[in-house]
């Protein structure tokens, strides 16, 4: 089916190209005359897991900026065709394993190593270095250093970052909670939760139906809010001495707060994905939601006005910290249409694309040349916090959880344990021992 589709497209593209060559010798595109303008009548295939409300529209905004410049290039959005982001990830893995790559795909920095050292083979790099693009666009100078670091591997850039999401975000439904009621300490947050619970409102929405990653977001946000941004950051980046009982005691206190938080969440989390949990807040069934700020895109796509119907602030106690994740797109080795894939990557790093994308997605642009002066108050407050946070911490490397593993496997490691803790498959003490033992092994260099 696929090969028929491709042959059909190739024949079609060839006919169109012949037609253009024979009809016009000075058919200039609107481009600057560099190599960008070649290869116009083609298609590129992109993979992404953005299929939920808000995300899908934001992705389309990126595509639109590209197709404005390259109207004859058909962008095949595989995730939209498959209908579910998780399916897109599965199909991508199968395609890569069969040496049948798309042109470009979405990834997080945690995934870089798994593609660059494919299947653990350091000589099998499935991505193409984007150093030239970063240089020609000035991104190597303009983009924040922290973000450049997480999209590079062994000194080379491998993915174009399109936005930064704050993960330690506390959402609330403003018809259930007034801004003045938002507390400043975790203890007061639990007092507020108790009050909501006595009124029959679920204080916090949570989901656990798509693995433990959603719990991981809540866990690290509460840990930061409970024990302070610096503790979270040091802990996360492997800088703590876990042979020191005082550090274990702080970690334990943070875990206790997380477990208290869980007592204020909905019972059906195991059946829900992140967007269904957000819907509980939208429907007024839950008052708050600790999640990455892509939920902004979800709420606004349902018609809610940011700062009016809902609001978002850093999780109580974590105001000093901006815990962020980066979304990026990479270029596949042996991409069927490398030139247009490069043109796509160039477009999505531009101020224009990042302006269109991030305001829909709920994230903050990576390109500093985006004009944000007309953005809504919530988006501006997030940008302000990003600028002023004393601790800027990404969530990409937490190898303490599975010493020696890739960043991806390590992330899955802690997420799985949080899911086990949630379902009662492990006890709190087992969870703590798992972390402390792995942490000691990872930081002692064993
Ligand atoms: C990505 C977000 C995305 C979310 C849910 C996160 O890993 O960084 O961009 O919206 O997953 O799909």
Describe the protein's topology.
Blueprint: H1 2-23, E1 43-47, H2 55-69, E2 74-77, H3 78-82, H4 85-97, E3 104-107, H5 112-116, H6 131-136, H7 139-142, H8 145-150, E4 152-153, E5 156-157, E6 159-166, E7 169-173, H9 186-198, E8 202-205, H10 213-227, H11 229-236, H12 245-262, H13 274-282, E9 286-291, H14 295-301, E10 310-314, E11 321-331, H15 338-348, H16 351-361, H17 377-388, E12 391-394, H18 407-423, H19 428-443
Parallel strand pairs: 1-2, 1-3, 8-9, 11-12
Antiparallel strand pairs: 3-11, 4-5, 6-11, 7-9, 7-10
Helix pairs in contact: 2-15, 2-16, 10-11, 10-12, 10-18, 18-19
This protein binds beta-D-glucopyranose.
Beta-D-glucopyranose is lined by residues 49, 55, 85, 108, 165, 274, 292, 294, 325, 327.
Report on this structure.
Strands 1, 2, 3, 6, 11 and 12 form a six-stranded mixed β-sheet that branches. 48% of the residues lie in helices and 13% in strands. It folds into two domains: 40-164 and 325-378, Periplasmic binding protein-like II (D-Maltodextrin-Binding Protein, domain 2, 3-Layer(aba) Sandwich); 169-317 and 400-444, Periplasmic binding protein-like II (D-Maltodextrin-Binding Protein, domain 2, 3-Layer(aba) Sandwich), CATH 3.40.190. It is of the alpha/beta class and 446 residues long. The chain has 19 helices and twelve strands. The structure holds beta-D-glucopyranose.
């Amino acid at each position: 089916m696929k090969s028929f589709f491709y042959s059909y497209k190739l024949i079609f593209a060839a006919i169109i190209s012949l037609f253009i060559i024979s009809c016009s010798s000075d058919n200039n595109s609107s481009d600057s005359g560099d190599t960008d303008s070649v290869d116009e009548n083609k298609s590129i295939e992109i993979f992404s897991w953005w299929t939920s409300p808000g995300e899908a529209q934001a992705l389309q905004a990126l595509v639109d900026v590209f197709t404005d410049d390259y109207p004859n290039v058909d962008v095949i959005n595989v995730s939209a065709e498959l209908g579910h982001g998780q399916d897109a990830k599965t199909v991508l893995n199968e395609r890569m394993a069969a040496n049948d790559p798309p042109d470009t795909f979405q990834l997080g920095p945690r995934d870089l190593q798994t593609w660059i050292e494919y299947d653990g083979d350091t000589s099998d790099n499935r991505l193409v270095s984007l150093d030239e693009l970063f240089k020609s666009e000035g991104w190597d100078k303009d983009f924040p250093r922290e973000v450049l670091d997480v999209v590079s591997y062994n000194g080379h850039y491998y993915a174009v970052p399109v936005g930064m999401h704050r993960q330690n975000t506390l959402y609330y439904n403003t018809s259930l909670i007034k801004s003045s009621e938002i507390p400043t300490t975790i203890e007061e947050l639990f007092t507020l939760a108790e009050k909501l619970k006595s009124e029959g409102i679920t204080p916090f929405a949570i989901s656990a139906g798509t693995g433990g990653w959603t719990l991981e977001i809540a866990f690290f946000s509460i840990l930061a809010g409970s024990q302070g941004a610096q503790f979270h950051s040091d802990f996360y980046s492997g800088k703590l001495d876990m042979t020191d009982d005082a550090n274990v005691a702080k970690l334990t206190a943070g875990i206790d707060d997380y477990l208290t938080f869980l007592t204020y969440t909905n019972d059906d989390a195991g059946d829900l994905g992140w967007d269904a949990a957000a819907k509980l807040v939208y429907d007024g069934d839950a008052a708050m939601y600790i999640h990455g700020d892509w939920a902004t895109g979800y709420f606004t796509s349902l018609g809610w006005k940011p700062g009016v119907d809902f609001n978002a602030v850093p999780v109580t106690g974590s105001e000093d910290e901006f815990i962020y994740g980066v979304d990026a797109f990479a270029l596949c080795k042996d991409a069927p249409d490398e030139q247009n894939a490069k043109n796509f990557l160039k477009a999505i790093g531009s101020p224009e694309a990042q302006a269109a994308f991030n305001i829909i997605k709920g994230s903050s642009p990576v390109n500093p040349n985006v004009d944000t002066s007309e953005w809504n108050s919530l988006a501006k407050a997030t940008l302000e916090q990003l600028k002023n946070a004393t601790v800027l911490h990404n969530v990409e490397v937490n190898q303490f959880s599975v010493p020696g593993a890739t960043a991806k496997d390590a992330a899955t490691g802690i997420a799985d344990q949080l899911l086990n803790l949630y379902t009662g498959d492990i006890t709190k003490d087992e969870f703590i021992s798992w972390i402390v033992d792995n942490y000691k092994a990872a930081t002692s260099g064993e």
